[in-house]
Each structure stands twice: as C-alpha cells, then as structure tokens.
Design brief:
Layout: E1 9-10, E2 13-14, E3 26-30, E4 38-44, E5 47-58, E6 71-78, H1 93-106, E7 118-128, H2 133-147, E8 157-164, E9 167-170, H3 174-179, E10 182-189, E11 194-198, E12 201-202, H4 206-243
Parallel strand pairs: 6-7
Antiparallel strand pairs: 1-2, 3-4, 4-5, 5-7, 8-9, 8-10, 10-11, 10-12
Helix pairs in contact: 1-2, 2-4
The structure holds cytidine-5'-diphosphate.
Length: 244
C-alpha cells in the first residue's frame, strides 16, 4: 500500500508536541514477575512491554546444547490486544525476524562461556504497541538479564531514529512510523559506542544516516542511565530489606 504524505511536523514540533531530538517518556520497573529469574517492565511512551529471563537452565532438546557455552533464546511476542486491529496470536514472519535481531543485539554482551550446555531463555511480551516495540523489548530484556544475574560485559540500550517530512527525528511513534519516510532501529553498548543492531527501512542519505546514528547514540546513553538507575534502585532496596 502506498503511503500518503501527511503533515507530521507543525511549527517545528511533532504532532505529539516533541522536539526532533526528544525521546518519549520512559518508565522502568525491575523484578515484576516472581517466577522469572529476572524480569523488567518497560514503558516507552505508549509502548508497554515485559521481559522475563529464565536460566541458565538445562537445554532441551539436548542436541541444541553447545558444549562450550550457553545458548541464548529470545522470543518476541505481540499480544493480540496490543495493536489497533487484533493481531492473530502466535509467531509470524515479523516476530521471528524481531526475535532474531534482538537476540543478536544482546548476544555479544553475555558471557556465555560460563554456562556450557545451558539455555538462557528471554521472553518479551508486548502488551501495548506504538512503534519501537523491538527497541523497548531489547531495553527490557537487557535489564531482565542483569536482574537474573547473568554475567554481562555491559547493558545494551536501544532506540529508533527515523525520517518524517524530510527531517531526521528520534524515537518514532506509530503515526510517524506509518506515514514517515524511514525508520532505523539501533541497539548499542552506550558506554563503548558499540553497535549490536542496526536496521533500516526507507531511504536515508549518508548525511541523514550519520545524523540519525548520532541522535541514537546520545539517546542510548540516556536510556543506559535509566536502566542502570532502575537496577540500582531495585537492588539497593533488597539490600536494605536484608539488613532489617
Ligand atoms: O514495533 P517496531 O517499531 O519495533 O516494529 P515495526 O514492525 O516497525 O512496527 C511498528 C508498529 O506498527 C508497531 O509498534 C505497532 O504499533 C504497529 N503494528 C501493528 O499495528 N500491527 C502489527 N501486526 C504489527 C505492527
């Protein structure tokens, strides 16, 4: 279906009132599920996702085991009620692709060699979506992995940049994603500027691409601080409780 052009920028502001380089509000809660080894609820504007991590635990079936390291499994799933039109339950091409790229975005920071023959299962459930769910899922999963005590080199942070009415902007919402000219989800280790995921939909000139990447890097540093703070708050609380 061909996209129609609509006005997404008015008086230098986006339709939701944000500036070009502004993130949507973020809320992070750690340890929301008691049966998971690590879990995280993550809100990015109107996106609401939950990540649950189980493991390291014995890998079944055993022929999927790796004798030298843990195997990371990642399942991204959108609830049928998370979108405007009911989504048919179960995996589809899109969720298989998102699961794959998200796993690859997190894989490089996990020290898998410590747990040979095991599986680390990461489940991401999208409860409400408004564009950027893969990035919200990666942010949530990264925190949930840390909360599960999985040894990691660092946290991964993720955000999308896009192009609307010819302008490069940060963190597209659903209307901008639907009617804009481009979408570029990025995941990175913010402290070292190491990119672990980069996808692109639409067309960006080299200059737009570089500008977008810079915007994403700055935003990932902010998200990284929020992820870190959420973990610190959660665990300083439990240390406090233990002392009582
Ligand atoms: O969510 P994300 O931006 O990572 O992925 P996308 O494939 O670019 O999807 C953008 C948005 O389209 C989603 O966040 C949903 O709001 C919407 N969508 C939908 O309404 N129905 C679907 N079956 C898939 C996506």
């Amino acid at each position: 279906m061909k996209k129609e052009e609509i006005e997404l920028i008015k008086d230098g502001k986006r339709l939701d009132g944000r500036g070009f380089e502004e993130l949507r509000p973020i809320k992070i809660e750690v340890g929301v599920l008691k049966r998971a080894d690590g879990s995280c609820y993550f809100e990015l504007g109107d996106n609401k996702v939950i990540a649950a991590v189980y493991g390291p635990r014995e890998m079944h079936p055993r022929h999927f085991q790796d004798a030298k390291m843990a195997v990371i499994k990642y399942r991204y799933n959108m609830a049928p009620f998370s979108v405007d039109d009911r989504k048919r339950p179960g995996p589809d091409r899109r969720s298989v692709e998102i699961s794959k790229v998200s796993r690859e975005a997190l894989d490089p920071v996990i020290i898998k060699e410590y747990y040979p023959k095991t599986a680390i299962d990461v489940y991401v459930e999208v409860l409400q979506s408004d564009a950027g769910t893969r990035t919200a899922g990666i942010n949530a999963a990264s925190v949930a992995l840390a909360a599960a005590g999985i040894p990691m080199k660092d946290l991964v942070s993720s955000v999308a940049v896009g192009k609307i009415n010819g302008e490069v902007v940060l963190d597209l919402n659903a209307v901008e994603d639907n009617y804009g000219e481009g979408d570029m989800p990025v995941a990175m280790v913010a402290r070292t500027n190491t990119i672990t995921m980069l996808q692109m939909d639409g067309r960006f000139s080299q200059e737009e691409f570089e500008r977008g990447l810079k915007l994403a890097a700055t935003a990932c540093s902010k998200i990284y601080e929020l992820q870190r703070t959420a973990l610190l708050e959660r665990y300083s609380e439990s240390i406090g409780e233990g002392e009582a």
